[in-house]
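Posting for a labmate who doesn't have an account.
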Amino acid sequence: MTGRPIPPGGWPCFHCGEVFTTVETAREHFGFDLFAEPGCVAKLLPEESNTLAQLRAAQSDVERLRTANEQMDYEVCATERAAGIA
């Protein structure tokens, strides 16, 4: 959902019918990739109600770290090229 404009009316969930109008709420419900299980489909027991929020927070951390790692890789390669190492 990153880099795409919000569709008119938001992102509808075909499972529960809820419509999400911000990237944050859509990611929380749908997950961070096409293979994630939507929050309304996840089989959670009442005592696990916070589990989905924790999972989405961890996925957000992974995405942030992946982006930072890619940036560092780019900078290392650029430095090595400039130094004639690579």
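Reply:
Got it, the structure tokens are right above this. The chain has two helices and two strands.
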